[in-house]
Amino acid sequence: MSFMTEINDRTSADTASVDALLNALYESISGPAGDRDFDRLRALLLPGARLIPTGRRLHGDGGVRVMDIDEWITDIRPTMQVEAFHEVEIARRTERFGAVAHVWSTYEARRTHDGEPFGRGINSFQLVHKDGRWWLVTSFWANETPDSTIPEQYLEAPVQA
Fold first, then answer.
1. What are the boundaries of each domain within the chain?
2. Which among 62, 65, 66, 89 has most CB atoms closer than 10 A?
3. Residue ranges of the DUF4440 domain (predicted)?
4. Contact 85, 155 (CB under 8 A)
5. Could you read off the pLDDT of 27-85 as tens digits, one per residue?
6. Sign of CA dihedral 27, 86, 64, 160
7. Could you name the CATH architecture of 3-156?
């Protein structure tokens, strides 16, 4: 099997369902200090997809910033090079109509997959089913703060992996 065949097979598996895509997304951004699998991450995103952090960020200042994947990688890479980071989904609410899906995904930020959380937040994912696969269109997220805690309804929904 060629390298490209392996990549295509992995992308097909990663985008076969909403659950598969979100699992691949969390896997691709989590890991020990060093680079992540950015090629795998890019393969999940619809061309032109946007990544939008809001409020206080775990590694920097606050505010709203709209980025494409390359801007996000440039922004986060220096932190990932020196710090382990695992974003672990703890609850999920999915709504779907036709080819559109919206997912509220509550996460914990940890240094190891099973470690103690040092932060929490909620991702708002918008996805579309196109060309026989799922694509991430937008990832819009906010980290929990003392002034803005995660509502109970976003902690109750089990992950549907």
1. 3-156
2. 89
3. 33-136
4. no
5. 999 999 999 999 999 999 999 999 999 986 555 566 899 999 999 999 999 999 999 99
6. positive
7. Roll (3.10)
